[in-house]
C-alpha cells in the first residue's frame, strides 16, 4: 500500500463542480407524459463526458431516461443532441468544457422516440432511398480479376466526403431543414456530391438534377451555413453544396 | 401480437449481416434484417485500420498470396483455427475487397514512385512500381509477413459499412431498425425465427423465418474496459446459447488490443504501429524490441498486449491518477501522414485526451477488443446442433481465428463470411429449409419470454440491473483478463454465479410503455452473465496457454492435451454452462503446429505433429505448383460456394510469370 | 426513372436560383457604386453636380436628359421587384415555420444564421424603403443635384428614410454579396474554410466603410439642405461649370 502511494505522482485536482442538467423529458408512448424539463445534479469527475454523465444519471436518478449511444468514440453518429441549444455529439463532449448549467434536448427535425432519443435512422434511410446514394454502374458478378485502377488522389477525395456519419447535426443546425422537412439537407447533398465525383458512378448531371434540381434539393439551400459550422467531422459542406449548385445550375439550363 | 414471416431472418445490421442479406436476396429469396441501431451505426464502423486480403499490389506486399495469408492467420490463431475455414477465408478475401471496390469503397491506392515511410523507427524510402499505380494499396499490420492490410485512411470500417449498407438499400433489403431479438424460436431442433422486442414501442413481436442468421458481433461489454461499442453485449450469442441446443465455441478466447486509449479504452488503430508508431515506457524507452527482437511492436496482438502488461508489472509503467499506462508515439510519422491517414486517431486524441498526437505521446493500455469465440458453426456457417441457425462475423465461431485474431482479419471475416454464409443459407432455402413450427410451440416460447419480462416487476425484487452489470464487468476485467490464474478464475466463476442468481431478482421500477431502458438492462444483464460464465468457466477449464488465453499457472501451449475447441452449452433448466470439447485433427492440417515466429518458443507438442510435418514437408519439396500442393495437403475448394472458387488474379503473379 | 413533377418546368428552380443571385449581385454592386456617386457631395457641390450631369448623359449628348435617370431607376426597381419576388420563396411562409425558425435561431447562437435572418428583415424593409426612394426618382428625375437633393433630404424631410435605408441596404447588400459568393463557391481559395473567414472579414470591413461613408454623405446633404432651407427649390449653378465641362471633354479626347 505504502509503496503504491509513494509512487503516485501528485496530480492537480480541480475542485469538482456540481453540474445541473436540465434534460428534456417526454415519452410519446405514455399518454400521461407531457413534454417538460427535469433537472438532475451530478458531481463532475475528471475527463467526464456527456456519455458518462448521462449513464450515471440514468443508473442512479432516472432509470427511464432515454438516450442513444453506440460507439461512444465520436465515429458512429448516434448521440447527436442539442447541448445548450447547439447540435453536437454528446459522447465526445467533455463536461469540463460546459458551464455548470447544461440543457440537453433531442435533435430537432427528427421523429422523437423519447427524451433525448430521436429516429435519425429512419430519416437517413428515407434520404438514401430518395437520392439513391449508391454507386450506379453495370453489374459485375465475378471478382477474380484485378480491380479497376483509380487515381490515388481521387480515392482520397472521395473518402474526404464519405466521412459523413449521418449524425443529423447538419439538419438540426440548418434553418431551411427546420422550416422545410422535405429539404434533403447538407447530408444528402454532400452524399450525392460524393457519388458525383466517383468515376465508378455513371449517373449523368441530368439524372442528378432530377433528384436535387429543385427547392427540396440544392436550390432549397439558403446558405445559412449551420451545416458547415456544426458538422462534427468538419466536412467541407458549404463547398460541396456550392459544387452541386454550380453543376445543377448548369444542368438546369442545358 | 404482430407476426412477420420471411425467408431469411438476419439478426444484426453490421457488415456481416448486410452482406449475408445481399447474398440471400441475390439468390431470389427475401431476407429481413433486424438491427439494434440504424445499420450505419453498427460497430463495424469502428474498424479503423483495414482489411486483410492478399492482393500484393504494393512493393511491400509484392509476392503475397493466399498461402502467406493463410500461414499468418494460422500462426496468429496459435493453431486453434479451423484450417479449412481459414483457407476458404483467405481465398475469398481478395474477391471481397474487389467487390467492395466495385460497390464504392474508396480504397487507398498505390502511388507510383518513391515514398517516405517509417519502419522500425527509421525513415526509409519505398519505391512503388509503375504498373501498380492506381491499384489497391496496403499497410503493415501485426503478425503478417507482408503488407496486406487494405485500407481507407483510418476509416476503413466506416467506408465499408456505408458502402455495404447503401448496397443493401439499393437492393431493396428491408431493415427493421431498433429491434432486439431476445429469444430464438425453435421446434424439433430447427430454428424458425425469433421473438423480438421493439426498442421504440417496447412491444413484443414474432418473426418467423425458414433460416435465421445471427450476425450481432462480439460481447466485449461483459468487460469493464473494452474498445467495443456499448451495443456489443453479445445478446445474439446469448439467445443462441439459451436455446440449449446451439453451442458456443472457444468462449475463453478473448482478445485484448494493445492500444486502447487510457483510461477510456477507446481504440486507436493498429495502423498506428503498422505505419511505424512505437510503444514507449515511463522513461520513453522503446521496450518492445527487448521482448520481441524480430516483430517488435508488430507481433500479434495477444503477444504485444502481454508484453505491455508485463512491462508495467516490472515497474516501467507511467503513473497517473487512474492507474498505470504506457505511451504510443506516432509523432515520428509526421503531421502530413497523421492528418491524412490517421485522422480519426487525431480526433479521438483531441476530443477525449485533449492532446495533439502529432506533438504529444498517447497514453495507452491494452483493453478488451474482440471475441474469437461465439456461436459454433460448421464451415457453411450453420450450427451443427440447431439446424436453420446460421451465424456470421464476430458472433460466430466459424473458427478462422482460433485463439487469437490478426488485426485486419475481422472486417475481412465479416464480409467474406457474409458472402459465403449468404450462399449457404440460400442453398438451404432451396433444398431443405421449411417453416414448420407449431403455433403451440410459438405460444409457449412467447409466454416464457413474457413471463421473464414480467418477473422483473415482482414486488419482492430488490436488485439494480446496472449495479449487477457493473459488478460483472469488474469481475471479468480483474479476473478473466490478459493474464489468468486458476485461483482467480475459480473466484470469478463463483462471483459470476452469485451475480447470476441476483440477476433473477432485478427490480424494474418503471412500468411505462415504450422502450424502458431499465427493463432492457434487466434482461440483458442475465444474458450477459450467462456469457461471462461461459468465458470464465472455459478459461478455468483450459489448463494451457494458447493465443490470447494465457494461464500463468499453465504457461505453455499444450497441443498434446488441448488441441481442441471448447464447446459450451446451457440447458434451459441449468444454473451453469456445460462444457465439452471438439478435437482438432493434426493429421489433416495443412500447417501442422509449430512456433508462431513470435511469443514463447516452448510448448508441449502433439504426438501426431512430427508425422504430419514430415508429410507436409514431403509435399512441399515436390515440384508441383502451389495450388496443386495445397490441394494435396488439404483440399478446400469443394467447400466453397461455386461462385467463389475461381483463382484470384494478381499483378505480381502476372508480371513474374 | 425518378419521379418528375409534370406541373412545373424542371428548369425553373435552376433558373430562379441563378436569377436571384444575379439580380442580387447587380443590386449590391449598384448600391456600392451609387454610394460612391452620391458621396461626391463630400468633395464639394461642384463634384456632385458634375456626377449628376454625367448620369443625365450630358458628356455624350451635350445636354442633360433626366429621363435617363428615370429609365435607369425603373430598371433598378424592376430588378428589386424580381429579386424580392425570388427571395420571397425563401421566407418563412406559415406561422409554424416562423415559430420553428425562431426557436431554432434562439438556441443555436450561430452568426451566419442570424445574418440570414437580418437579411429577411432588411429585405422586407427594403420593399418599402427602396420603393419609395426609387418611385421618387422615377417621377422627379430632374430633382437631383447638390441643392435639389439636399432640399429633398432636409426640407423634404427625407433624411429619416435615407438614414434607415442606408443601414438596411448596406447590411442587406453586404451580407447578401458574402452569401452569394459562399453559395456558389466563388473566391473561396484553396481551403474553403479559410476562404470563408477571409470573406467574412472583407464583408465587415466593406460594410463598415460604406456605413461610415454613407453617414458622412447623408450628414453633408443634411448640412447643405439645412443651410439652403430658406431658398429651397433653387437649383445649383456650378461656379466653374464650363471649365469642368471642357475638362471632362478634354479627357474624352
Record the SSE blueprint.
The complex is a heterotrimer of chains A (254), B (657) and C (253).
Chain A: H1 2-7, E1 18-25, E2 36-43, H2 50-60, E3 80-83, E4 86-89, E5 101-105, E6 112-114, E7 117-118, H3 120-131, H4 152-162, H5 169-172, H6 175-179, H7 185-196, H8 205-212, H9 226-230, H10 237-253
Chain B: E1 3-11, H1 15-26, E2 31-35, E3 51-52, H2 66-76, H3 83-103, E4 113-119, E5 122-128, E6 138-139, E7 149-150, H4 156-170, E8 174-177, E9 179-187, E10 190-198, E11 204-214, H5 235-241, E12 248-249, E13 254-261, H6 271-274, E14 278-280, H7 288-291, H8 301-316, E15 318-320, E16 323-329, H9 335-341, H10 343-353, E17 362-371, E18 374-376, E19 389-391, E20 396-397, H11 409-431, H12 439-455, H13 465-479, E21 483-484, H14 486-503, H15 517-541, E22 550-551, E23 557-558, H16 559-562, E24 564-569, E25 578-583, E26 603-604, H17 609-621, H18 626-633, H19 651-656
Parallel strand pairs in B: 1-2, 1-11, 2-8, 11-19, 18-20, 21-22, 23-26
Antiparallel strand pairs in B: 3-7, 4-5, 6-7, 9-10, 10-11, 12-18, 12-24, 13-17, 14-16, 15-16, 16-17, 24-25
Chain C: H1 12-38, H2 45-55, H3 58-61, H4 66-88, H5 95-108, H6 111-139, H7 146-154, H8 159-184, H9 192-227, H10 241-252
Helix pairs in contact in C: 1-4, 1-8, 1-9, 4-6, 6-8, 7-9, 8-9
Protein name (chain B): succinate dehydrogenase
Subcellular location (chain B): Cell inner membrane
Main location (chain B): membrane
Structural features, described:
The complex is a heterotrimer of chains A (254), B (657) and C (253). With 254 residues, chain A is of the alpha+beta class. Chain A folds into two domains: 18-117, Ubiquitin-like (UB roll) (Roll), CATH 3.10.20; 120-136 and 151-252, Fumarate Reductase Iron-sulfur Protein, Chain B, domain 2, CATH 1.10.1060.10. In chain A, 36% of the residues lie in helices and 13% in strands. Chain B is of the alpha/beta class. Chain B has a domain at 257-368: Succinate dehydrogenase/fumarate reductase flavoprotein, catalytic domain (Flavocytochrome C3, Chain A, domain 1, Alpha-Beta Complex). In chain B, the strands form seven sheets. In chain B, strands 1, 2, 8, 9, 10, 11 and 19 form a seven-stranded mixed β-sheet that branches. Chain B has a five-stranded mixed β-sheet with strand order 20-18-12-24-25. The radius of gyration of chain B is 24 Å and the shape is globular. Chain C is mainly α and 253 residues long. Chain C is elongated and about 55 Å long. Helices cover 75% and strands 0% of the residues of chain C. Chain C is built from ten helices and no strands. The chains are: A alpha+beta (254), B alpha/beta (657), C mainly alpha (253).
Amino acid at each position: 500500500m505504502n509503496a503504491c502511494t509513494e509512487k503516485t505522482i501528485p496530480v492537480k485536482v480541480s475542485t469538482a463542480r456540481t453540474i445541473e442538467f436540465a434534460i428534456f423529458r417526454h415519452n410519446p408512448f405514455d399518454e400521461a407524459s407531457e413534454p417538460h424539463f427535469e433537472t438532475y445534479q451530478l458531481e463532475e469527475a475528471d475527463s467526464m463526458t456527456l456519455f458518462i454523465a448521462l449513464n450515471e444519471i440514468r443508473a442512479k436518478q432516472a432509470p427511464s431516461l432515454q438516450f442513444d449511444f453506440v460507439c461512444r468514440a465520436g465515429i458512429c453518429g448516434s448521440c447527436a443532441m442539442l447541448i445548450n441549444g447547439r447540435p453536437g455529439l454528446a459522447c465526445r463532449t467533455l463536461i469540463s468544457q460546459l458551464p455548470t448549467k447544461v440543457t440537453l434536448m433531442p435533435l430537432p427535425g427528427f421523429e422523437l422516440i423519447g427524451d433525448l432519443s430521436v429516429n435519425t435512422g429512419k430519416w437517413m434511410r428515407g434520404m438514401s432511398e430518395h437520392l439513391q446514394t449508391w454507386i450506379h454502374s453495370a453489374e459485375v458478378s465475378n471478382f477474380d480479376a484485378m480491380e479497376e485502377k483509380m487515381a490515388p488522389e481521387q480515392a482520397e477525395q472521395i473518402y474526404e466526403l464519405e466521412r459523413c456519419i449521418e449524425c443529423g447535426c447538419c439538419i438540426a443546425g440548418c434553418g431551411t431543414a427546420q422550416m422545410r422537412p422535405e429539404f434533403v439537407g447538407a447530408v444528402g447533398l454532400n452524399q450525392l456530391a460524393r457519388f458525383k465525383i466517383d468515376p465508378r458512378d455513371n449517373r449523368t448531371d441530368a439524372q442528378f438534377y432530377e433528384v436535387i434540381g429543385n427547392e427540396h434539393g440544392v436550390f432549397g439551400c439558403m446558405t445559412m451555413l449551420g451545416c458547415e459550422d456544426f458538422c462534427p467531422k468538419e466536412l467541407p459542406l458549404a463547398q460541396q453544396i456550392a459544387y452541386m449548385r454550380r453543376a445543377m445550375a448548369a444542368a438546369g439550363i442545358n | 401480437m404482430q407476426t412477420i414471416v420471411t425467408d431469411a431472418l438476419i439478426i444484426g445490421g453490421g457488415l456481416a449481416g448486410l452482406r449475408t442479406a445481399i447474398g440471400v436476396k441475390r439468390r431470389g429469396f427475401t431476407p429481413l434484417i433486424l438491427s439494434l441501431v440504424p445499420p450505419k451505426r453498427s460497430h463495424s464502423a469502428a474498424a479503423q485500420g483495414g482489411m486483410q486480403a492478399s492482393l500484393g499490389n504494393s512493393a511491400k506486399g509484392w509476392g503475397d498470396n493466399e498461402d502467406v495469408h493463410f500461414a499468418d492467420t494460422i500462426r496468429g490463431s496459435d493453431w486453434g483455427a479451423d484450417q479449412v475455414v481459414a483457407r476458404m477465408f483467405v481465398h475469398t478475401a481478395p474477391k471481397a475487397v474487389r467487390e467492395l471496390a466495385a460497390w464504392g469503397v474508396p480504397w487507398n491506392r498505390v502511388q507510383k514512385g518513391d515514398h517516405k515511410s517509417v519502419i522500425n523507427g527509421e525513415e526509409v524510402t519505398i519505391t512503388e512500381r509503375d504498373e501498380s499505380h492506381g491499384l489497391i494499396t496496403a499497410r503493415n499490420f501485426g503478425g503478417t509477413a507482408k503488407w496486406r492490410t487494405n485500407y481507407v485512411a483510418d476509416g476503413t470500417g466506416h467506408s465499408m459499412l456505408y458502402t455495404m449498407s447503401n448496397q443493401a438499400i439499393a437492393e431493396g433489403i428491408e431493415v427493421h431498425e431498433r429491434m432486439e431479438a431476445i429469444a430464438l424460436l425453435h421446434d424439433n431442433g430447427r430454428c424458425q425465427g425469433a421473438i423480438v422486442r421493439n426498442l421504440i414501442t417496447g412491444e413484443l413481436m414474432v418473426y418467423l423465418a425458414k433460416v435465421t442468421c445471427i450476425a450481432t458481433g462480439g460481447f466485449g461489454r461483459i468487460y469493464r474496459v473494452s474498445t467495443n461499442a456499448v451495443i456489443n453485449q453479445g445478446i445474439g450469442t446469448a439467445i443462441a446459447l439459451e436455446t440449449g441446443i446451439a453451442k458456443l465455441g472457444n468462449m475463453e478466447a478473448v482478445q485484448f488490443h494493445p492500444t486502447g486509449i487510457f483510461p477510456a479504452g477507446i481504440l486507436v488503430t493498429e495502423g498506428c504501429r503498422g505505419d511505424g508508431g512505437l510503444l514507449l515506457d515511463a522513461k520513453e524507452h522503446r521496450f518492445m524490441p527487448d521482448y520481441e527482437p524480430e516483430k517488435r511492436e508488430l507481433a500479434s496482438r495477444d503477444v504485444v498486449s502481454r508484453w505491455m502488461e508485463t512491462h508495467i508489472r516490472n515497474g516501467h509503467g507511467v503513473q497517473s491518477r487512474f492507474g498505470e499506462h504506457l505511451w504510443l508515439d506516432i509523432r515520428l510519422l509526421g503531421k502530413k501522414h497523421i492528418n491524412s491517414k490517421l485522422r480519426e486517431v487525431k480526433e479521438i486524441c483531441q476530443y477525449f485526451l485533449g492532446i495533439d498526437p502529432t506533438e504529444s505521446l498517447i497514453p495507452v493500455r491494452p483493453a478488451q477488443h474482440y471475441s474469437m469465440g461465439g456461436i459454433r458453426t460448421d464451415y457453411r456457417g450453420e450450427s451443427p446442433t440447431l439446424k436453420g441457425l446460421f451465424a456470421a462475423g464476430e458472433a460466430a465461431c466459424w473458427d478462422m481465428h482460433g485463439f487469437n485474431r490478426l488485426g485486419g482479419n475481422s472486417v475481412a471475416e465479416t464480409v467474406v463470411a457474409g458472402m459465403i454464409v449468404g450462399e449457404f443459407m440460400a442453398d438451404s432455402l432451396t433444398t431443405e429449409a421449411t417453416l414448420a413450427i407449431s403455433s403451440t410451440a410459438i405460444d409457449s416460447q412467447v409466454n416464457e419470454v413474457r413471463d421473464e419480462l414480467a418477473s422483473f416487476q415482482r414486488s419482492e425484487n430488490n436488485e439494480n440491473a446496472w449495479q449487477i452489470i457493473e459488478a460483472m464487468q469488474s469481475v471479468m476485467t480483474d479476473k478473466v483478463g490478459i493474464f489468468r490464474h486458476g485461483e482467480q478464475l475459480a473466484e470469478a466463476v463463483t462471483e459470476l454465479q452469485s451475480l447470476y442468481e441476483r440477476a433473477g431478482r432485478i427490480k424494474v421500477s418503471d412500468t411505462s410503455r415504450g422502450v424502458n431502458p431499465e427493463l432492457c438492462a434487466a434482461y440483458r444483464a442475465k444474458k450477459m452473465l450467462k456469457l461471462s460464465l461461459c468465458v470464465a468457466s472455459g478459461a478455468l477449464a483450459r489448463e494451457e496457454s494458447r493465443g490470447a488465453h494465457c494461464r500463468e499457472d499453465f504457461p505453455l501451449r499444450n497441443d498434446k492435451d488441448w488441441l481442441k475447441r471448447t464447446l459450451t452449452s446451457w440447458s434451459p433448466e441449468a444454473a451453469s454452462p456445460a462444457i465439452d470439447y471438439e478435437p482438432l485433427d493434426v493429421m489433416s492440417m495443412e500447417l501442422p503446429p509449430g512456433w508462431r515466429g513470435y511469443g514463447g518458443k516452448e510448448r508441449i507438442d502433439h504426438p501426431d505433429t512430427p508425422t504430419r510435418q514430415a508429410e507436409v514437408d514431403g509435399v512441399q519439396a515436390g515440384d508441383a505448383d502451389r495450388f496443386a500442393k495445397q490441394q494435396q495437403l488439404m483440399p478446400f475448394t469443394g467447400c466453397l460456394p461455386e461462385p467463389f472458387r475461381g483463382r484470384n488474379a494478381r499483378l505480381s503473379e502476372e508480371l513474374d510469370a | 426513372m425518378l419521379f418528375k413533377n409534370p406541373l412545373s418546368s424542371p428548369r425553373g428552380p435552376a433558373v430562379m436560383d441563378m436569377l436571384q443571385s444575379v439580380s442580387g449581385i447587380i443590386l449590391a454592386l449598384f448600391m456600392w457604386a451609387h454610394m460612391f456617386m452620391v458621396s461626391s457631395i463630400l468633395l464639394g457641390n461642384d463634384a456632385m453636380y458634375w456626377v449628376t450631369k454625367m448620369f443625365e448623359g450630358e458628356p455624350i449628348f451635350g445636354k442633360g436628359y433626366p429621363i435617363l435617370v428615370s429609365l435607369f431607376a425603373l430598371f433598378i426597381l424592376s430588378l428589386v421587384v424580381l429579386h424580392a419576388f425570388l427571395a420571397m420563396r425563401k421566407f418563412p411562409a406559415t406561422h409554424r415555420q416562423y415559430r420553428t425558425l425562431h426557436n431554432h435561431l434562439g438556441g443555436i447562437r450561430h452568426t451566419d444564421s442570424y445574418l440570414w435572418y437580418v437579411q429577411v428583415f432588411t429585405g422586407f424593409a427594403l420593399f418599402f424603403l427602396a420603393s419609395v426612394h426609387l418611385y421618387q426618382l422615377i417621377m422627379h428625375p430632374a430633382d437631383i443635384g447638390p441643392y435639389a437633393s439636399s432640399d429633398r433630404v432636409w426640407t423634404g424631410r427625407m433624411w429619416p428614410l435615407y438614414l434607415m435605408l442606408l443601414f438596411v441596404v448596406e447590411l442587406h447588400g453586404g451580407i447578401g454579396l458574402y452569401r452569394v459568393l459562399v453559395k456558389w463557391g466563388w473566391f473561396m481559395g484553396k481551403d474553403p474554410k479559410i476562404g470563408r473567414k477571409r470573406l467574412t472579414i472583407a464583408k465587415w470591413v466593406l460594410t463598415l466603410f460604406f456605413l461610415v461613408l454613407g453617414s458622412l454623405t447623408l450628414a453633408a446633404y443634411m448640412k447643405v439642405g439645412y443651410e439652403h432651407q430658406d431658398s429651397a427649390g433653387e437649383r445649383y449653378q456650378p461656379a466653374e461649370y464650363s471649365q469642368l465641362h471642357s475638362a471632362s471633354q478634354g479627357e474624352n479626347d
